[in-house]
Design brief:
- This protein has about 230 residues and is an alpha/beta fold.
- It has one domain (about 1-225): Ribonuclease Z/Hydroxyacylglutathione hydrolase-like (Metallo-beta-lactamase, Chain A, 4-Layer Sandwich), CATH 3.60.15.10.
- Helix content is about 20%, strand content about 30%.
- The strands form two sheets. It has a seven-stranded mixed β-sheet with strand order 6-5-4-3-2-1-14, with helices on one face.
- The protein starts with a strand and ends with a strand.
- It comes from Pedobacter lusitanus.
- InterPro entries: Metallo-B-lactamas, RibonucZ/Hydroxyglut_hydro, UPF0173_UPF0282_UlaG_hydrolase.
- Keywords: Hydrolase.
């Protein structure tokens, strides 16, 4: 599967010919200043929670591309109020089928609020099953035993985990999470953007290797192919 990293926790996956974008925060990320959001393709946009660094560019990209935006009920209501017409709710435990395949929403252990401090529902992650491969994006989360349920539902090809620590899992817990969901390939996100979440990337890769896991840390704007 082709995965393109746009910085922080934003990435896209091409599956069944569809461009699936996650947590677009680009225009406000100085590390992603070389990315032109007007060139990003999206048929679907998944939003894991209400923090600004996961949804800043949702409305702009959705208005231009006509993408369907998916998130928890509170996000669904919020984006409708922003004038978006193609919005679909999906709460933790819920599953829905689209032309790229099936998505199941799962809980994330994290806070969630809008920029004005109002309630944005609970944080969540997404498990996608497609003809081209299966993967889990945890969203912002701490390590949780709920992750051990995922292999009961699906065989994953890879997972996307935050590794920046302080605000989410760090490297050590992300390694444990990979073992919980039974993957040996992980794409790391949510690191280096802010001072609180700076990491040593070489050291992170080595720590994953000690557990016989592969950690991918693509450059912003880089695309990689994940094999099944």
């Amino acid at each position: 599967m082709k995965v393109t990293y746009y910085g922080h926790a934003c990435f896209s996956v091409i599956a069944a010919g569809k461009h699936i974008l996650f947590d677009p925060f680009i225009s406000g990320n100085e590390l992603a200043s070389a990315i032109n959001i007007d060139e990003i393709k999206a048929d679907y946009i998944f939003v894991s929670h209400g923090h600004f660094d996961h949804m800043l560019d949702v409305v702009t990209i959705a208005n231009r591309t006509g993408a369907m935006v998916l998130g928890i009920w509170e996000l669904y209501e919020y984006f409708k109020k922003q004038g978006l017409k193609k919005v679909h709710p999906i709460n933790p435990g819920g599953k829905a089928t689209f032309d790229f395949g099936t998505v199941k929403s799962v809980i994330g252990q994290h806070s969630s609020s809008f920029s004005d401090g109002s309630y944005a529902g609970v944080a969540c992650g997404f498990v996608l099953e497609t003809v081209d491969g299966n993967f889990y994006y945890s969203g912002d989360t701490g390590l949780t035993l709920d992750m051990t349920l995922i292999p009961r539902w699906i065989d994953l090809d890879f997972a996307v985990f935050p590794i920046g620590d302080v605000l989410t899992m760090g490297v050590e817990d992300a390694i444990e999470a990979a073992q919980f969901v039974k993957v040996d390939q992980v794409i790391g996100v949510h690191y280096d953007t802010f001072g609180l979440i700076k990491i040593d990337k070489d050291d992170a890769v080595k720590e994953f290797e000690k557990s016989d896991l592969t950690l991918y840390l693509p450059a912003i704007g880089e695309s990689i192919d994940i094999q099944r």
